[in-house]
Write a structure and sequence with these properties.
Elements (H helix, E strand, L loop, with lengths): L6 E7 L18 H8 L2 E7 L5 H10 L3 H4 L40 H7 L3 E6 L6 E2 L2 E2 L10 E3 L33 H15 L5 E6 L11 H10 L16 H23 L6 E7 L22 H4 E7 L8 E3 L3 E2 L3 H8 L16 H5 L9 H4 L2 E6 L12 E6 L2 E6 L5 E5 L15 H17 L11
Parallel strand pairs: 1-7, 1-8, 2-10, 2-11, 3-6, 3-7
Antiparallel strand pairs: 2-9, 4-5, 8-9, 12-13, 13-14, 14-15
Length: 464
C-alpha cells in the first residue's frame, strides 16, 4: 500500500464532559497539548455521542449504526453470564428474554475490520467494553473484531479505580515497564501508544487509544492531585473525591491524558509522520455530574439532555484538515464510520446499514459563504436510551430527537414530552412543548417512526 494513505489515531476519553478542556473554555483544568491539537486543526462545538453511556456509544462508533440497530442500548455489565449473540429483531413484539446480555456481533465489519481490509495494521490500547465477562475474563475481545493488537484491555469489570499497578482490570500477568512499580495506567497507555507508533512507522496503521480515565472512581497521580488541590485552594483535610466543580483528581487524570497527546504528536514529528496522520480526540459521552460540570449544558452522563450527549471533538491532519477552524455544524460519532471509509477508499457493503454521514467536507473546511452539503445540514439526530428503572446517575428511560435547532425528548417512564430551541437555549432551561404543540406532535411522530424503523426495544436491562 502506498504510504500516502494516512495513519489514523483515534483517542477516546471515558466520560470526558463537554466543558473540561481549555479549548472549550475551562480555566481550571490544564490541557495545552489537546488545545494545540484543536488550534492546529478543527474544533467542533456541536459534536454528539450516539448514546449517553459508554457501551452503546462505542458500539455505534465501531459500526456506524445507531444503538437500537446494532442491539446494544445500555452499558454491558461485568457480572452477567455470557449469552450467544441474539438479534433483537427476531423476537415477537420486540420482547427480549430477561437474561439477554448482548455483545457486539463479531460478524459485523467494525472500524478495525475496515482498516485491516485496506492493509492497515490495527491496534487498540485500553478500554473495549463491548463484550461480556465471566469467571474466566473477557470473551470475544478486540482481536475478534479486527484488531491485530490488543494492549492493556480490560479482562474483568471496569470502574473500580484500579489505576496503579498491579492493575485489577487488565491481564494480571502485565508487568510494569522499566520496573516502575508505581506505574500509572494512563502513563502506561501513553507509552504503549508511542511504542505502537514506532514499531509500525513503516506501514499505515489505525490506533484506537481508548482511555479508562476519567471514569470514576477517580484516581490521579499524587503529585498532580496536590498541584490541582492547591490551585483550587483546598487543603489536605478536604474530601476531593466527589467535588463537582474544579475537581483536582479529575484535573490530574486529564493532565496525564493530555501529556500523552503531547507524547504522541512529538513521536509523529520525530518519525516524519505528523503531516499525514489524522488524530481525533473526543469522548464517549457526557461527564458525570457527581464530579464535573458539562459547561453550560444541562445534566450529564445517563441523561438525554445536552450535557449527557454533547462531547468535545478536535482533530488534526496537516495535509488535509483545515487549520484553526471552528465548526458549528452538528455531527455524531457514528459519522466516523463512513468518514474513514471515504478516506481510505473502503466500499461499505450495501447490506451494512450506516446511520452516520461522512464529515470530510467539514474536515476540509468551509469557505465563508460556502454551502454545507445537504446531507450534513438537512439531517435529524436520534437517541434511544431505554431503561427498566432510572440510572443511578439520574438518567431516565427516554428517546430524543434533534431536528434543526429543535430538541425533543420523550420520556418513557411517565410519557412526558419536552421541547427546547437550542439556537437560544442550549442549556435547555425553557420547555416549549406547551407553547409549540404542533411542532411537539410532529417531532414526537418523527421519533416514533425512527424507533420503529430501527426495531427499538422500549426497555432493556437493569440500570444499576
Amino acid at each position: 500500500m502506498s504510504q500516502n494513505k494516512p495513519n489514523v489515531i483515534f483517542i477516546l476519553v471515558d466520560d470526558l464532559g463537554w466543558g473540561e478542556l481549555g479549548c472549550y473554555g475551562n480555566t481550571f483544568n490544564e490541557t495545552p497539548n489537546i488545545d494545540a491539537l484543536a488550534t492546529g486543526g478543527i474544533r467542533f462545538t456541536t459534536a454528539y455521542a450516539s448514546s449517553t453511556v459508554c457501551s452503546p456509544s462505542r458500539a455505534a462508533l465501531m459500526t456506524g449504526q445507531a444503538p437500537p440497530r446494532n442491539g446494544i442500548t445500555d452499558y454491558l455489565r461485568p457480572d452477567t453470564e455470557w449469552h450467544l449473540p441474539l438479534n433483537p429483531n427476531s423476537f415477537a413484539d420486540n420482547e427480549l428474554p430477561e437474561d439477554t446480555e448482548f455483545r457486539l456481533d463479531p460478524s459485523m465489519v467494525t472500524l478495525a475490520d475496515m482498516f485491516k481490509q485496506q492493509s492497515y495494521h490495527t491496534g487498540i490500547i485500553g478500554k473495549w467494553h463491548l463484550s461480556g465477562y465471566d469467571q474466566n475474563g473477557v470473551k470475544f475481545g478486540p482481536t475478534k473484531y479486527g484488531f491485530n493488537e490488543s494492549i492493556v484491555s480490560e479482562q474483568v469489570g471496569i470502574g473500580s479505580g484500579s489505576y496503579f499497578w498491579p492493575y485489577k482490570l487488565v491481564d494480571p500477568a502485565i508487568q510494569p515497564l522499566d520496573g516502575k512499580e508505581e506505574e500509572y495506567l494512563v502513563d502506561r497507555m501513553n507509552e504503549e501508544a508511542v511504542r505502537f507508533i514506532r514499531r509500525n512507522a513503516d506501514r499505515p496503521f489505525f490506533l484506537y487509544l481508548s482511555h479508562y480515565a476519567v471514569h470514576t472512581a477517580l484516581v490521579g497521580k499524587p503529585e498532580d492531585v496536590r498541584y490541582f488541590a492547591e490551585k483550587a485552594g483546598l487543603t489536605s483535610s478536604d474530601d476531593l473525591a466527589w467535588i463537582k466543580y474544579h475537581n483536582p483528581i479529575l484535573a490530574a487524570m486529564l493532565k496525564s491524558v493530555d501529556d500523552g497527546v503531547g507524547m504522541i504528536r512529538k513521536t509523529l514529528e520525530e518519525l516524519g509522520l505528523d503531516q499525514n496522520t489524522l488524530i481525533i480526540f473526543t469522548s464517549d459521552n457526557g461527564g458525570e455530574t457527581r464530579v464535573t460540570r458539562n459547561g453550560h449544558l444541562r445534566e450529564g452522563k445517563s441523561t438525554t439532555y445536552e450535557g449527557g450527549l454533547r462531547i468535545p471533538l478536535a482533530m488534526s491532519w496537516p495535509q488535509m484538515v483545515a487549520k484553526g477552524t471552528e465548526c458549528h455544524v452538528p455531527t455524531i460519532n457514528m459519522d466516523f464510520y463512513p468518514t474513514f471509509a471515504e478516506i481510505i477508499s473502503y466500499q461499505i457493503p450495501e447490506h451494512h446499514i450506516v446511520d452516520g454521514v461522512s464529515i470530510t467536507p467539514l474536515m476540509h473546511g468551509l469557505e465563508e459563504g460556502a454551502e454545507i452539503p445537504a446531507d450534513l445540514v438537512d439531517r435529524s439526530f436520534y437517541w434511544h436510551y431505554p431503561l427498566d428503572k432510572p440510572h443511578f446517575l439520574g438518567g431516565r428511560s427516554s428517546a430524543a430527537n434533534r431536528t434543526g435547532d429543535w430538541k425533543f425528548i420523550s420520556f418513557f417512564d411517565d410519557e412526558s414530552k419536552e421541547l427546547y430551541n437550542l439556537s437560544n437555549d442550549e442549556a435547555e432551561s425553557v420547555d416549549q412543548s406547551r407553547s409549540e404543540p404542533e411542532l411537539t406532535h410532529k417531532l414526537d411522530e418523527n421519533l416514533k417512526s425512527w424507533l420503529e424503523s430501527v426495531n427499538a426495544v422500549k426497555q432493556s436491562g437493569n440500570s444499576n
